Protein backbone atom coordinates (compact mmCIF):
# COMPACT_ATOMS: atom_id res chain seq x y z
CA UNK A 1 0.00 0.00 0.00
CA UNK A 2 1.10 3.58 -0.62
CA UNK A 3 2.22 5.96 2.15
CA UNK A 4 -0.71 7.78 3.83
CA UNK A 5 1.26 10.97 4.12
CA UNK A 6 4.14 12.49 2.16
CA UNK A 7 6.38 15.50 2.58
CA UNK A 8 6.66 17.76 -0.45
CA UNK A 9 9.80 19.89 -0.50
CA UNK A 10 9.20 22.98 -2.61
CA UNK A 11 12.40 23.70 -4.53
CA UNK A 12 11.09 26.33 -6.97
CA UNK A 13 12.80 29.32 -5.36
CA UNK A 14 16.17 27.55 -5.75
CA UNK A 15 16.16 24.83 -8.41
CA UNK A 16 13.41 26.64 -10.28
CA UNK A 17 14.86 30.12 -10.40
CA UNK A 18 18.58 29.31 -10.55
CA UNK A 19 18.37 28.75 -14.29
CA UNK A 20 16.54 31.97 -15.18
CA UNK A 21 18.67 34.16 -17.43
CA UNK A 22 17.11 37.47 -16.39
CA UNK A 23 17.80 38.47 -12.84
CA UNK A 24 14.69 38.00 -10.70
CA UNK A 25 14.37 40.86 -8.19
CA UNK A 26 14.79 40.01 -4.52
CA UNK A 27 11.25 41.23 -3.73
CA UNK A 28 9.79 38.76 -6.20
CA UNK A 29 11.79 35.89 -4.72
CA UNK A 30 10.69 36.88 -1.24
CA UNK A 31 7.05 37.07 -2.21
CA UNK A 32 7.30 33.68 -3.89
CA UNK A 33 8.75 32.04 -0.76
CA UNK A 34 6.15 33.70 1.47
CA UNK A 35 3.29 32.60 -0.77
CA UNK A 36 4.63 29.04 -0.70
CA UNK A 37 4.94 28.83 3.05
CA UNK A 38 1.46 30.26 3.42
CA UNK A 39 0.28 27.31 1.30
CA UNK A 40 1.53 24.98 4.02
CA UNK A 41 4.90 23.65 2.86
CA UNK A 42 6.99 22.49 5.80
CA UNK A 43 10.20 22.62 3.80
CA UNK A 44 11.19 25.18 1.18
CA UNK A 45 14.53 25.32 -0.60
CA UNK A 46 14.98 29.05 -0.62
CA UNK A 47 18.67 29.74 -1.21
CA UNK A 48 21.93 28.56 -2.70
CA UNK A 49 25.29 29.74 -1.45
CA UNK A 50 27.40 28.90 -4.46
CA UNK A 51 29.82 30.92 -6.52
CA UNK A 52 27.96 33.89 -8.09
CA UNK A 53 30.18 33.44 -11.13
CA UNK A 54 28.79 29.95 -11.61
CA UNK A 55 25.16 30.69 -10.82
CA UNK A 56 24.51 34.46 -10.92
CA UNK A 57 20.78 34.15 -10.20
CA UNK A 58 21.45 32.83 -6.70
CA UNK A 59 23.74 35.72 -5.75
CA UNK A 60 20.94 37.39 -3.78
CA UNK A 61 20.33 34.39 -1.51
CA UNK A 62 21.52 36.30 1.54
CA UNK A 63 19.02 39.12 0.93
CA UNK A 64 16.22 36.64 0.32
CA UNK A 65 16.91 34.74 3.53
CA UNK A 66 17.10 37.98 5.50
CA UNK A 67 13.68 39.25 4.42
CA UNK A 68 11.38 36.25 4.09
CA UNK A 69 8.71 35.89 6.72
CA UNK A 70 9.86 32.93 8.79
CA UNK A 71 6.99 30.66 9.56
CA UNK A 72 7.52 28.63 12.73
CA UNK A 73 8.25 24.99 12.05
CA UNK A 74 9.17 25.51 8.41
CA UNK A 75 12.57 24.25 7.31
CA UNK A 76 14.28 26.76 5.01
CA UNK A 77 17.03 24.95 3.11
CA UNK A 78 20.11 26.25 1.36
CA UNK A 79 22.66 24.64 -0.94
CA UNK A 80 26.20 24.66 0.43
CA UNK A 81 28.92 23.11 -1.75
CA UNK A 82 31.79 23.98 0.60
CA UNK A 83 32.67 25.73 3.86
CA UNK A 84 32.35 29.16 2.29
CA UNK A 85 28.78 28.29 1.38
CA UNK A 86 28.18 26.81 4.82
CA UNK A 87 29.33 29.95 6.62
CA UNK A 88 27.00 32.02 4.46
CA UNK A 89 24.08 29.67 5.10
CA UNK A 90 24.73 29.72 8.83
CA UNK A 91 24.86 33.52 8.89
CA UNK A 92 21.63 33.60 6.88
CA UNK A 93 19.97 31.31 9.45
CA UNK A 94 19.21 28.43 7.14
CA UNK A 95 17.61 25.51 9.00
CA UNK A 96 19.05 22.90 6.71
CA UNK A 97 22.14 22.82 4.53
CA UNK A 98 22.37 20.73 1.40
CA UNK A 99 25.59 19.16 0.22
CA UNK A 100 25.20 18.21 -3.40
CA UNK A 101 27.21 15.54 -5.10
CA UNK A 102 26.71 13.24 -8.03
CA UNK A 103 26.67 9.58 -8.90
CA UNK A 104 28.36 10.52 -12.17
CA UNK A 105 32.05 11.43 -12.23
CA UNK A 106 31.62 13.56 -15.37
CA UNK A 107 28.73 15.58 -13.92
CA UNK A 108 30.57 16.13 -10.65
CA UNK A 109 33.39 17.82 -12.56
CA UNK A 110 31.05 20.02 -14.58
CA UNK A 111 28.78 21.00 -11.71
CA UNK A 112 31.12 21.46 -8.76
CA UNK A 113 34.52 21.35 -10.41
CA UNK A 114 35.87 18.31 -8.57
CA UNK A 115 35.70 14.52 -8.55
CA UNK A 116 33.19 12.57 -6.49
CA UNK A 117 35.91 11.60 -4.00
CA UNK A 118 37.08 15.21 -3.68
CA UNK A 119 33.51 16.37 -3.16
CA UNK A 120 32.95 13.91 -0.33
CA UNK A 121 36.17 15.09 1.33
CA UNK A 122 34.96 18.69 0.96
CA UNK A 123 31.54 17.80 2.40
CA UNK A 124 33.09 16.32 5.55
CA UNK A 125 33.81 19.77 6.94
CA UNK A 126 30.35 21.02 6.01
CA UNK A 127 28.68 17.99 7.58
CA UNK A 128 30.60 18.36 10.82
CA UNK A 129 29.91 22.10 10.98
CA UNK A 130 26.21 21.45 10.36
CA UNK A 131 26.08 18.99 13.26
CA UNK A 132 28.09 21.28 15.54
CA UNK A 133 25.64 24.09 14.85
CA UNK A 134 22.52 21.97 15.18
CA UNK A 135 21.48 22.32 11.55
CA UNK A 136 19.80 19.64 9.53
CA UNK A 137 21.96 18.08 6.85
CA UNK A 138 20.70 16.86 3.48
CA UNK A 139 22.64 15.18 0.73
CA UNK A 140 21.60 15.44 -2.89
CA UNK A 141 22.82 12.96 -5.50
CA UNK A 142 22.61 14.21 -9.07
CA UNK A 143 22.48 11.94 -12.09
CA UNK A 144 21.27 8.92 -10.12
CA UNK A 145 19.34 7.78 -13.19
CA UNK A 146 21.57 8.95 -16.01
CA UNK A 147 24.06 11.64 -16.90
CA UNK A 148 24.09 14.23 -19.69
CA UNK A 149 27.84 13.71 -20.15
CA UNK A 150 28.55 10.04 -19.49
CA UNK A 151 25.14 8.48 -20.20
CA UNK A 152 24.56 5.36 -18.10
CA UNK A 153 25.21 5.59 -14.38
CA UNK A 154 25.72 2.18 -12.71
CA UNK A 155 23.56 1.24 -9.71
CA UNK A 156 26.78 0.59 -7.78
CA UNK A 157 27.78 4.21 -8.21
CA UNK A 158 24.47 5.35 -6.71
CA UNK A 159 24.79 2.88 -3.83
CA UNK A 160 28.32 4.08 -3.15
CA UNK A 161 27.40 7.78 -2.94
CA UNK A 162 24.28 7.06 -0.85
CA UNK A 163 26.53 5.17 1.59
CA UNK A 164 28.97 8.07 1.72
CA UNK A 165 26.21 10.62 2.31
CA UNK A 166 24.84 8.35 5.05
CA UNK A 167 28.27 8.13 6.68
CA UNK A 168 28.55 11.92 6.61
CA UNK A 169 25.46 11.97 8.83
CA UNK A 170 22.83 13.15 6.38
CA UNK A 171 19.32 13.35 7.80
CA UNK A 172 17.87 13.09 4.34
CA UNK A 173 19.24 11.94 0.98
CA UNK A 174 17.81 13.00 -2.38
CA UNK A 175 17.94 10.64 -5.29
CA UNK A 176 17.92 13.07 -8.19
CA UNK A 177 17.01 12.64 -11.83
CA UNK A 178 18.81 15.75 -13.00
CA UNK A 179 17.88 15.32 -16.67
CA UNK A 180 14.54 13.56 -16.29
CA UNK A 181 15.49 10.40 -18.17
CA UNK A 182 14.18 7.76 -15.75
CA UNK A 183 11.11 5.63 -16.39
CA UNK A 184 9.13 3.79 -13.69
CA UNK A 185 10.89 0.40 -13.60
CA UNK A 186 14.28 2.05 -13.81
CA UNK A 187 13.18 4.36 -11.01
CA UNK A 188 12.31 1.38 -8.85
CA UNK A 189 15.66 -0.31 -9.52
CA UNK A 190 17.55 2.81 -8.45
CA UNK A 191 15.30 3.45 -5.45
CA UNK A 192 15.62 -0.16 -4.28
CA UNK A 193 19.37 0.27 -4.43
CA UNK A 194 19.12 3.45 -2.34
CA UNK A 195 16.76 1.79 0.17
CA UNK A 196 19.35 -0.92 0.78
CA UNK A 197 21.86 1.78 1.72
CA UNK A 198 19.73 4.25 3.73
CA UNK A 199 16.61 4.58 5.87
CA UNK A 200 13.46 4.49 3.78
CA UNK A 201 11.96 7.44 5.64
CA UNK A 202 15.01 9.59 4.90
CA UNK A 203 15.02 9.10 1.15
CA UNK A 204 13.51 11.54 -1.27
CA UNK A 205 12.77 11.58 -4.99
CA UNK A 206 13.92 14.66 -6.92
CA UNK A 207 12.57 14.29 -10.42
CA UNK A 208 13.01 16.68 -13.32
CA UNK A 209 10.31 16.34 -15.94
CA UNK A 210 12.34 16.67 -19.13
CA UNK A 211 10.83 13.56 -20.74
CA UNK A 212 7.42 13.82 -19.10
CA UNK A 213 8.07 10.84 -16.81
CA UNK A 214 8.26 12.52 -13.43
CA UNK A 215 4.75 11.80 -12.14
CA UNK A 216 5.00 8.18 -13.24
CA UNK A 217 8.34 7.93 -11.48
CA UNK A 218 6.89 9.42 -8.32
CA UNK A 219 4.09 6.88 -8.40
CA UNK A 220 6.66 4.11 -8.88
CA UNK A 221 8.56 5.45 -5.86
CA UNK A 222 5.38 5.65 -3.76
CA UNK A 223 4.91 1.95 -4.41
CA UNK A 224 8.25 1.35 -2.68
CA UNK A 225 7.25 3.53 0.28
CA UNK A 226 9.32 6.63 -0.53
CA UNK A 227 7.52 9.48 1.21
CA UNK A 228 9.46 12.65 0.40
CA UNK A 229 9.32 14.36 -3.01
CA UNK A 230 10.77 17.55 -4.42
CA UNK A 231 8.85 19.72 -6.84
CA UNK A 232 8.82 23.25 -8.25
CA UNK A 233 5.82 25.49 -8.33
CA UNK A 234 4.70 25.93 -11.92
CA UNK A 235 7.38 23.45 -13.01
CA UNK A 236 10.04 26.15 -12.89
CA UNK A 237 13.62 25.40 -13.57
CA UNK A 238 16.41 23.34 -14.97
CA UNK A 239 20.04 22.94 -14.09
CA UNK A 240 22.66 25.29 -15.49
CA UNK A 241 25.06 22.36 -15.84
CA UNK A 242 22.61 20.00 -17.56
CA UNK A 243 21.88 21.48 -20.96
CA UNK A 244 18.28 21.05 -22.12
CA UNK A 245 17.09 19.78 -18.73
CA UNK A 246 13.70 21.25 -17.92
CA UNK A 247 12.26 22.08 -14.56
CA UNK A 248 11.41 19.86 -11.66
CA UNK A 249 8.07 18.14 -11.75
CA UNK A 250 5.42 20.80 -11.16
CA UNK A 251 4.21 21.02 -7.58
CA UNK A 252 0.60 21.54 -8.62
CA UNK A 253 0.65 18.31 -10.65
CA UNK A 254 2.14 16.37 -7.74
CA UNK A 255 -0.42 17.78 -5.29
CA UNK A 256 -3.28 16.99 -7.64
CA UNK A 257 -2.09 13.40 -7.93
CA UNK A 258 -1.61 13.05 -4.16
CA UNK A 259 -5.12 14.41 -3.55
CA UNK A 260 -6.54 11.88 -5.97
CA UNK A 261 -4.64 9.08 -4.24
CA UNK A 262 -5.89 10.22 -0.84
CA UNK A 263 -2.35 10.95 0.35
CA UNK A 264 -2.05 13.79 2.83
CA UNK A 265 0.47 16.57 2.08
CA UNK A 266 -0.85 19.32 4.36
CA UNK A 267 -0.65 21.77 1.45
CA UNK A 268 -3.38 23.97 0.00
CA UNK A 269 -3.32 23.40 -3.76
CA UNK A 270 -5.26 26.59 -4.58
CA UNK A 271 -2.70 28.79 -2.87
CA UNK A 272 0.07 26.99 -4.76
CA UNK A 273 -1.79 27.58 -8.03
CA UNK A 274 -1.93 31.31 -7.22
CA UNK A 275 1.78 31.31 -6.40
CA UNK A 276 2.43 29.59 -9.73
CA UNK A 277 0.41 32.22 -11.58
CA UNK A 278 2.26 34.95 -9.73
CA UNK A 279 5.73 33.77 -10.73
CA UNK A 280 4.71 32.81 -14.27
CA UNK A 281 3.23 36.25 -14.82
CA UNK A 282 6.40 37.82 -13.53
CA UNK A 283 8.52 35.68 -15.86
CA UNK A 284 6.18 36.53 -18.71
CA UNK A 285 5.27 33.03 -19.73
CA UNK A 286 2.63 30.41 -19.26
CA UNK A 287 3.21 28.16 -16.28
CA UNK A 288 4.41 24.62 -17.00
CA UNK A 289 2.01 22.90 -14.61
CA UNK A 290 -0.88 21.21 -16.42
CA UNK A 291 -2.96 20.95 -13.26
CA UNK A 292 -2.05 24.51 -12.29
CA UNK A 293 -3.17 25.90 -15.65
CA UNK A 294 -6.38 23.86 -15.59
CA UNK A 295 -7.30 25.01 -12.10
CA UNK A 296 -6.39 28.64 -12.85
CA UNK A 297 -8.61 28.58 -15.95
CA UNK A 298 -11.72 27.54 -14.00
P1 LIG B 1 35.79 26.40 -7.74
O1 LIG B 1 36.09 27.46 -8.76
O2 LIG B 1 36.44 25.06 -7.92
O3 LIG B 1 36.05 26.91 -6.26
O4 LIG B 1 34.23 26.21 -7.68
P2 LIG B 1 37.22 27.65 -5.52
O5 LIG B 1 37.14 27.22 -4.10
O6 LIG B 1 38.50 27.49 -6.28
O7 LIG B 1 36.77 29.18 -5.57
C1 LIG B 1 36.78 29.94 -6.78
C2 LIG B 1 36.03 31.24 -6.56
O8 LIG B 1 34.67 30.98 -6.19
C3 LIG B 1 36.59 32.11 -5.45
O9 LIG B 1 36.33 33.47 -5.80
C4 LIG B 1 35.73 31.77 -4.27
O10 LIG B 1 35.66 32.78 -3.32
C5 LIG B 1 34.39 31.58 -4.92
P3 LIG B 1 37.42 34.40 -6.54
O11 LIG B 1 38.61 34.37 -5.63
O12 LIG B 1 37.70 33.75 -7.87
O13 LIG B 1 36.73 35.71 -6.64
N1 LIG B 1 33.54 30.65 -4.15
C6 LIG B 1 32.33 30.97 -3.64
N2 LIG B 1 31.61 32.11 -3.68
C7 LIG B 1 30.42 32.10 -3.03
N3 LIG B 1 29.94 31.01 -2.37
C8 LIG B 1 30.63 29.85 -2.32
C9 LIG B 1 31.89 29.82 -2.97
N4 LIG B 1 32.82 28.86 -3.10
C10 LIG B 1 33.82 29.39 -3.82
N5 LIG B 1 30.15 28.81 -1.68
C11 LIG B 1 32.20 25.63 -6.57
C12 LIG B 1 33.64 25.26 -6.84
C13 LIG B 1 31.51 24.45 -5.96
C14 LIG B 1 32.17 26.82 -5.62
C15 LIG B 1 31.55 26.03 -7.91
O14 LIG B 1 31.77 25.00 -8.82
C16 LIG B 1 30.09 26.31 -7.80
O15 LIG B 1 29.68 27.30 -7.19
N6 LIG B 1 29.26 25.48 -8.40
C17 LIG B 1 27.83 25.68 -8.30
C18 LIG B 1 27.14 24.67 -9.07
C19 LIG B 1 25.66 24.84 -8.87
O16 LIG B 1 25.20 25.65 -8.09
N7 LIG B 1 24.91 24.05 -9.61
C20 LIG B 1 23.48 24.08 -9.52
C21 LIG B 1 22.98 23.50 -8.23
S1 LIG B 1 23.05 21.73 -8.17
C22 LIG B 1 21.59 21.24 -8.92
O17 LIG B 1 20.85 22.04 -9.43
C23 LIG B 1 21.24 19.78 -8.86
C24 LIG B 1 20.14 19.45 -7.85
O18 LIG B 1 18.96 20.18 -8.14
C25 LIG B 1 19.82 17.96 -7.92
C26 LIG B 1 19.59 17.51 -9.35
O19 LIG B 1 18.59 17.89 -9.96
O20 LIG B 1 20.48 16.81 -9.84
C27 LIG B 1 20.57 19.79 -6.42
MG1 LIG C 1 17.48 19.62 -9.56
TrEMBL record:
Q: Which GO BP terms, alphabetically?
A: ketone body biosynthetic process; L-leucine catabolic process
UniProt pathway? Metabolic intermediate metabolism; (S)-3-hydroxy-3-methylglutaryl-CoA degradation; acetoacetate from (S)-3-hydroxy-3-methylglutaryl-CoA: step 1/1
Report domain Pyruvate carboxyltransferase positions.
Answer: 6-273
Q: What is its EC number?
A: 4.1.3.4
Task: List, in alphabetical order, the Gene Ontology terms for molecular function in this entry.
Answer: hydroxymethylglutaryl-CoA lyase activity; metal ion binding
Please give the Pfam families that the UniProt record associates with this protein. Answer: HMGL-like
Q: Which UniProt keywords apply?
A: Lyase, Metal-binding
What family name appears in the similarity comment?
A: Belongs to the HMG-CoA lyase family.
* NCBIfam families with a match to the protein in the record: PRK05692.1
Name this polypeptide is given: hydroxymethylglutaryl-CoA lyase
State the species of origin. Rugamonas aquatica
Amino acid sequence: SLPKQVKIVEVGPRDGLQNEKESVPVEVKIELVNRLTSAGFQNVEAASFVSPKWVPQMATSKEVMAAIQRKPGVIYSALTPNMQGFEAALAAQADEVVIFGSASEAFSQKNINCSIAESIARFEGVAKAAKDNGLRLRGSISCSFGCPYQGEVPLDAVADVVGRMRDLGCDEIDIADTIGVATPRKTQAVMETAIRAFRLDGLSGHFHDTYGQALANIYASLELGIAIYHSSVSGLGGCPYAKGATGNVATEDVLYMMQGLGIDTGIDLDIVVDAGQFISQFLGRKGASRAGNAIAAK
